[in-house]
Design goal:
By secondary structure, this protein is mainly α. It has helices spanning 2-27, 31-61, 69-79, 92-105, 113-122, 126-134, 143-153.
């Protein structure tokens, strides 16, 4: 069981390192470049990460130890198709679907609000992205909440 925990920790660290490097890079790009970068670079890397998770899942299936029920659920989730989050461009009718997808796919898998704020920037464009960026210089513990509030009010 220790080996499983080591592999999961390696996987999580690897993806977090990648995400941080990508976020830093994308934050330096202009909006159109950042959107293209997300589509052409980040999404394929995310698929590689999912493949890595699948390999861990396959490795776990080969273990003779009993697998906890929650591990079986993780294995099933890894084998599902990739979930896309549409870029939110400010259309009011798209906000609820966007924020639900964001909460389900990003928010619950990130550990802190600073990471969530960077992802929120990645998945917005136009005026919403400007609002999110304006919150990036604020207190790192409140920037994400402020960005969410401003998007909701917009």
């Amino acid at each position: 069981m220790e080996k499983i925990e080591e592999k999961v920790a390696l996987c999580e660290k690897s993806f977090k390192d990648f995400s941080n490097a990508h976020e830093e890079y994308v934050s330096k790009l202009e909006e159109k470049q950042a959107t293209e970068e997300n589509k052409n670079y980040f999404q394929p890397k995310f698929e590689e990460y999912q493949q890595f998770l699948k390999e861990i899942s396959d490795w776990m299936k080969g273990m003779e130890e009993d697998v906890k029920p929650q591990d079986s659920i993780s294995q099933k989730l890894v084998s599902l198709p990739r979930r896309d989050i549409q870029i939110f461009d400010g259309k009011v009718q798209d906000y609820r679907a966007f924020i639900a997808a964001f909460e389900h796919n990003i928010e619950k898998f990130t550990e802190n609000d600073q990471d969530r704020l960077y992802y929120l920037q990645q998945y917005t464009s136009g005026r919403p992205r400007e609002l999110v960026r304006s919150c990036m210089g604020k207190d790192r513990n409140r920037g994400y909440d402020q960005a969410r509030k401003e998007l909701e009010e917009e």
